[in-house]
C-alpha cells in the first residue's frame, strides 16, 4: 500500500498529542477507502474527475 499521508503533517496538526506508530497505517487505510469510494461515485456519475461532492 502506498503511503497517502505525511506523518510530519499529521504530527503538526495534532500538536501536543502523542501519535502511536500504528495510527499512521490505520489513517492511511481510511484515506485509501475514502479515495476508492470517491472514485466509485465519480464513475457512477459518468465522470472521470473526482470532485469534492464525491466525498
Structure, described:
- The structure is a single chain.
- This protein has 55 residues and is mainly α.
- The chain has one domain.
- Helix content is 56%, strand content 0%.
- The protein has two helices and no strands.
- It has helices at 7-13, 21-44.
- It is elongated.
- The two termini are 21 Å apart.
- The model has no long low-confidence stretch (mean pLDDT 94).
Shape: elongated
Strand content: under 5%
In sequence order, what are the helices and strands, one letter per element? HH
Low-confidence stretches: none
Number of helices: 2
Average pLDDT, rounded to a whole number, is 94
| Helix/sheet category | mainly alpha
Report the sheet with the most strands, covering strand number, pairing sense and barrel closure.
none
- Helical content stands at 55-70%
**Count of DSSP strands:** 0
| Global Rg | 14 Å
Tally of structural domains: 1
Distance between the termini: 21 Å
Write the layout of secondary structure elements.
Blueprint: H1 7-13, H2 21-44
